[in-house]
């Protein structure tokens, strides 16, 4: 019973760390938003109302978030990065920063602060084009990085630790490529550039899948795996002691290691 309680406490602590991130809450709301768009298929009703209200609520999470990419834009690139990748990276930062800044004006219009409807709609479309551009840049960056990793892995042995590390990075890059490709199509759907092919239902489905990937990427998986391994080892030791007539109580301060986990995912 104590073991189950301690395990639950540890898992809840990881969940608290996860939900304390504004980015994580935003992506959960994004999944709700696009899931509702998929259900509504652009038709009026409860699902469409959920889509619209959740979209408006998400904009609050993103207030002043453009500063993050603005800072990345003026920061020096990592040493050894090829010039084309630097250009794509800076373009991505500029576009996503512009998107987030203009999105604040859209939020101001929807809340009644900014009254000019025509200009707000124009700004909204410009912001979506910026997001489309940033998603394109992200896809190209991920493709290039996967190619670089693949070339470097050819020089390493399969069982080498460095090979395993690069393979893990390559898988992460591949997942990011899938996500950015989905976001690109979602942007096309929101802009209605191909309304017959990218319908509201297609937009909703891809947006929902992309949101789930984002939620997964934000999970503290390494910390969670480490905690599960630690608990498993303690339980095995406890069982061994119990089999010879002595019980080793689990450390009730199990939550302490969780508190040391970085919240920067």
Automatic annotation (TrEMBL):
One of its GO terms (molecular function) is identical protein binding. GO terms for biological process: peroxisome fission; regulation of peroxisome size. It is found in: Peroxisome membrane. Its main location: membrane. This is Peroxisomal membrane protein 11C. Involved in peroxisomal proliferation. Keywords: Coiled coil, Membrane, Peroxisome, Peroxisome biogenesis. The lineage of its organism: Eukaryota, Viridiplantae, Streptophyta, Embryophyta, Tracheophyta. It is a multi-pass membrane protein. The keyword Repeat does not apply. GO terms for cellular component: peroxisomal membrane. Belongs to the peroxin-11 family. Residues 146-173 form a coiled coil.
């Amino acid at each position: 019973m104590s073991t189950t309680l301690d395990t639950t406490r540890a898992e809840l602590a990881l969940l608290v760390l996860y939900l304390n991130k504004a980015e994580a809450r935003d992506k959960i709301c994004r999944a709700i938003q696009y899931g509702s768009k998929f259900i509504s298929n652009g038709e009026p009703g409860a699902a469409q109302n959920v889509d619209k209200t959740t979209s408006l609520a998400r904009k609050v999470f993103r207030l002043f978030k453009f500063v993050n990419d603005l800072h990345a834009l003026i920061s020096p690139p990592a040493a050894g990065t090829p010039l084309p990748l630097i250009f794509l990276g800076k373009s991505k930062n500029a576009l996503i920063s512009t998107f987030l800044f203009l999105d604040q004006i859209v939020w101001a219009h929807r809340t009644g602060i900014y009254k000019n409807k025509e200009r707000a709609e124009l700004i909204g479309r410009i912001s979506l084009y910026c997001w489309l551009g940033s998603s394109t840049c992200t896809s190209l960056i991920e493709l290039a990085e996967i190619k670089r990793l693949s070339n470097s892995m050819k020089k390493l042995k399969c069982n080498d630790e460095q090979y395993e590390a690069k393979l893990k990075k390559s898988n992460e890059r591949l997942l990011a490529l899938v996500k950015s490709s989905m976001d690109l199509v979602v942007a096309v759907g929101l802009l209605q550039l191909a309304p017959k092919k990218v319908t509201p239902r297609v937009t909703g489905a891809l947006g929902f899948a992309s949101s789930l990937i984002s939620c997964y990427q934000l999970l503290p998986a390494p910390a969670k795996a480490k905690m599960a391994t630690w608990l498993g080892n303690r339980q095995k030791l406890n069982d061994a002691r119990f089999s010879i007539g002595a019980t080793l109580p689990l450390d009730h301060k199990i939550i302490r290691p969780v508190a040391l986990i970085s919240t920067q995912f």
